[in-house]
């Protein structure tokens, strides 16, 4: 398969509640219906298997870099990102060609 | 789809060469042939679209948590991890249920 993948990992600030994370996840899960450039969208909270992990992952697949940029800059997506910002302690991301 | 996903992002130490990263990538790409529990395996270097990203991503899919643990603890995988360690400046990982 060819394509372009966006991967992002977050750690949440101390005191972030499960309800807050669930709300973020619900907002994120609405994005594929709003942004047709999203080909695949997967997210989840860390399963607690290993020590020292981050807290939350998003893996989003696109046909190509341009389709990813549409997602990145989409206003609905930006609004979700803005709503997440108070919860984010750290963020690591990579975009790569599939 | 159900399953279990392992996501890991790396930044490399300063001075890491493209040849070194290519060698790591080649070793990683051999793992699905060695570890049948790997259902999907994708990796790549950051495409340079955004500032502040990490350098390299691996996304590995498994049927379930136990299959992931087989991968995590497989000796061939551990040998690749050991060979990568001198290059790793930072690492962030999440495992989550698909």
TrEMBL record, chains A, B:
Pfam families: Dabb
SUPFAM superfamilies named among the record's database cross-references: Dimeric alpha+beta barrel (SSF54909)
Stress-response A/B barrel domain segment(s): 4-96
Protein name per UniProt: Dabb family protein
Organism: Actinomadura gamaensis
């Amino acid at each position: 398969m060819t394509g372009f993948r966006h991967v992002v990992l977050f750690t949440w600030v101390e005191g972030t509640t499960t309800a807050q994370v669930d709300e973020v996840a619900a907002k994120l899960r609405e994005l594929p219906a709003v942004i047709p450039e999203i080909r695949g969208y997967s997210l989840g909270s860390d399963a607690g298997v290993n020590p020292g992990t981050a807290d939350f992952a998003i893996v989003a697949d696109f046909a190509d870099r341009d389709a990813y940029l549409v997602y990145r800059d989409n206003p609905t997506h930006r609004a979700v990102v803005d709503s997440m910002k108070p919860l984010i302690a750290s963020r690591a991301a990579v975009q790569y060609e599939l």
